Amino acid sequence: MIRFLIAIIVLQWCFCLFLLQSNEGNNTERSRPAWNGVAALLFLRRPKWYYKRYNVLVDNALANIPLDWGLQIFYEREFLSEVLQFHRGLERRLQQHPRVVLTELPPSLSHLKPNRVWKDSWVWKNAVADRVLTINGDGVLCSNSQKTWSDLEGIDYIGIPWNHGEGGDGSTHSLQNRTVVLTAMNSPYWHQLGERRFDTRLVQMIRRLNEEGSQYRLATTEETEWFGPAKHQLMAENGTLIRNTGFGPLVVTGTLFDWSYEARNWVIGTCPELKAIFPSLHDPACFGARPDPSHCAASLGLPPCQESITTTI
């Protein structure tokens, strides 16, 4: 009888050990809590130089999204075999971090450009939370932001500021309600909008659905400027720097090529993470105790600059 009980205990211990080992290192199968939000990244096959920023994007997202949010990575199958073998640190992060969710894209969505992928309802149906922050490799989340993600509660769509103000541009980063996205995609009007960009179609659909009685909320112009910087926050019409001590967006994207040197310097001083994904901004002429405007402008592919520099990074 004692031998029988010992055998049962040993079998139970072996079974638990098997379950533990099968869960380790496999983020696609591990059970997860119900996330209050998710940051979503597309890992597609891109030029080799582009892969070098993936470590930064993953760590930047995990460091700045709320602790009750996950990071979901939609990837092409080839990505795992062709890329991760050369990026061991990224491989460990993706396999071991408890907030990382790996989701393989179906063959129909492989080899497409990001905007085409986001237009497909499959991605939104498979997102692990209703609040979805889409992240692009051309920008970062700013850890020195004056605002927090809780300031955007109740907004069904927000993107980077654009000329139209309300709503914002989602070609790089945007935050949206998955349920609203799927509602818009299921509307007969969605396909009538043609092959416009996903964010343009979504904003137009939300406005149309609201005309029909829905109460979805687009971000106001002011809220989009919390989300991402607008030039007028730091630049006067003549290009001179406005010293805005309240400046601090949640997201910063692009090289800010059409910003004045001083304004761009201010942005990078507030959100230095941006320099990690744009190596050209590491030119010594662009920062430090003695920046050289003309040399820095040349390194960024900009016309010669004659402005004096009073701010250092």
Automatic annotation (TrEMBL):
The keyword Signal belongs to this UniProt entry's keyword annotation: yes
UniProt keyword annotations, A-Z: Signal
Signal peptide: 1-25
Pfam name, any one: DUF5672
The DUF5672 domain, residue ranges: 113-178
Protein known as: DUF5672 domain-containing protein
Organism: Fistulifera solaris (Oleaginous diatom)
